[in-house]
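Figure 3 (text version): structure tokens given as input.
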């Protein structure tokens, strides 16, 4: 997968080669966080993580409030990137990276639609995000997640992320991971 980021503008362009799966082909492209597809996927991400936390479906008003309280402004160049993954053209995954310091990027808002889990979309998404982190000069990637997000934790472990001690005090963080980008 080749991702080419334009670090001089607020939007990124990307070219990818597809990742073929038994169910179709994934492509992952850099996209501004405010495009219709990116916005819909960020809403789906927040609805899922909030609903799992509250053990009930999140309302539209709660999703709106959550997105207002957790802005995505750091996910644009030159401080970060956002990508959208498509399975046979359908937008079904997203994720972002933001720089924590000159050599450390942080993964955030990593989401694969439940209907597309197990098809390789998560791995394709992580590969694109890691390429984006390298383009920003990162030597390592970190993330935090919750205990109930078992699919996410399994995805990170399968893709070379190791649990580390806490590097932040985020209110919902229960597990912290890191991967070197050698």
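Below: residues designed for each position.
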């Amino acid at each position: 997968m080749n991702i080419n980021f334009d670090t001089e503008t607020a939007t990124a362009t990307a070219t990818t080669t597809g990742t073929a799966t038994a169910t179709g082909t994934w492509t992952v492209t850099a996209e501004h966080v405010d495009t219709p597809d990116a916005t819909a996927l960020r809403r789906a991400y927040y609805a899922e993580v909030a609903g799992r936390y509250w053990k009930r479906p999140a309302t539209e008003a709660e999703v709106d409030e959550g997105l207002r309280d957790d802005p995505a402004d750091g996910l644009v160049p030159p401080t970060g990137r956002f990508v959208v993954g498509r399975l046979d053209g359908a937008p079904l995954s997203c994720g972002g990276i933001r720089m924590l310091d000159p050599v450390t990027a942080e993964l955030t808002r990593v989401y694969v639609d439940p209907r597309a889990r197990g098809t390789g979309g998560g791995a394709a998404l992580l590969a694109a995000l890691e390429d984006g982190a390298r383009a920003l000069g990162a030597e390592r990637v970190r993330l935090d997640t919750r205990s109930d997000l078992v699919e996410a934790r399994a995805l990170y472990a399968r893709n070379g992320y190791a649990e580390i001690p806490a590097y932040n005090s985020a209110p919902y963080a229960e597990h912290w991971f890191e991967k070197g980008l050698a």
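Helices lie at 36-54, 60-69, 121-135, 150-158.
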